[in-house]
Amino acid sequence: MKLALANPGFNVPFGGTGTLQKAIFAFIGLALIIAVLFALFNMAMGGIDMIMSVGKKENVKRGQEKFFFSILGLILIFLSFLFINVISKALGINLLRLN
After folding, report:
1. Confidence (pTM)
2. What domain count does the chain have?
3. pLDDT tens profile 60-85
4. Which domain holds residue 47?
5. Is 59 a member of any domain?
6. Residue 70 confidence (pLDDT)
7. CB pairs under 8 A, 24+ apart, for 46-49?
8. For residues 74 and 67, what is the distance between their CA atoms, to the nearest angstrom?
9. Residues whose CB falls within 8 Å of the CB of residue 96, separated by 6 or more in sequence, listed in order
10. d(CA 24, CA 15)
11. 67 contacts: CB under 8 Å, gap ≥ 6
12. Is the dihedral of CA 91, 92, 97, 99 positive or negative?
């Protein structure tokens, strides 16, 4: 009789062959998602800072900086996604697939 652990449905590797590879793929995908969400949250906070500044120049500037660096972060995330795809094509593997 074989006893096996059930996967909870999140494509989380539980063991066996290729577990490290699947864990790395899952980490890359999760890191990209978290980075995008963080950048979007900071962009929203920068917009809120600009709206709530009530004309104070230092608060407007702080909000603009948050917004600008959030846009810059999204550009860097997109470039890293592009870089991962180029590397995966060159190596012949799909680094963003969890299968």
Report:
1. 0.69
2. 1
3. 999 999 999 999 999 999 998 889 88
4. 38-99
5. yes
6. 94
7. 46/70
8. 11
9. 25, 28, 29, 84, 85, 88
10. 13
11. 43, 46, 47, 50
12. negative
Does 62 reside within a domain? yes
Rounded to the nearest 5 percent, the helix, strand and coil shares of the chain are 70, 0, 30
pLDDT in tens, 80-90: 888 988 888 88
DSSP letter for each residue of 48-94:
HHHHTTTT-HHHHHHHHHHHHHHHHHHHHHHHHHHHHHHHHHHHTS-
Residue 47: pLDDT band by 50, 70, 90 thresholds? very high
**Cα dihedral: 12, 14, 19, 22 (round 10):** -10
Q: Is residue 50 part of a domain?
A: yes
Helices 57-91 and 19-51: crossing angle in degrees, nearest 10, is 160
CA distances, 12 to each of 24, 26, 37, 78, 84 (Å)? 11, 7, 21, 24, 21
For the record, the structure tokens of 32 come out as 């990209």
Residue 5 in any domain: the answer is no
